[in-house]
Write a structure and sequence with these properties.
Largest sheet: none
Number of helices: 4
CATH class: Mainly Alpha
Strand content: under 5%
Radius of gyration: 11 Å
Distance between the termini: 12 Å
CATH topology: Non-ribosomal Peptide Synthetase Peptidyl Carrier Protein, Chain A
Number of strands: 0
CATH architecture: Orthogonal Bundle
Shape: globular
Number of domains: 1
Length: 82
């Protein structure tokens, strides 16, 4: 999962325009400056393009739900890319 986290981190850095941004499995939207609803959609589109996957509307909504974090995203992505 570490390799997947590295790739996801690169997507985050591109979407948020911050080469120094580091995300961990415990990182939440509240931990990232500028992670609002629009940034969330931009992030989803960038992840879909990078990994060649499609997220359902319900999956996208759950990623912003309370208690969700990068670990939640990684679990979802790992199921889709394997």
């Amino acid at each position: 999962m570490a390799a997947l986290l590295d790739e996801v981190q690169n997507v985050f850095q591109n979407v948020f325009g911050d080469d120094q941004l580091e995300v961990q499995e415990s990182t939440t939207a509240a931990d990232v400056d500028g992670w609002d609803s629009l940034a969330h959609l931009n992030l989803i589109v960038a992840l879909e393009k990078r990994f060649g996957v499609k997220f359902a509307t319900a999956e996208i909504s759950r990623l912003k739900a309370e208690g969700s974090n990068i670990g939640t995203l990684l679990e979802l992505l790992s199921r889709k890319v394997t």
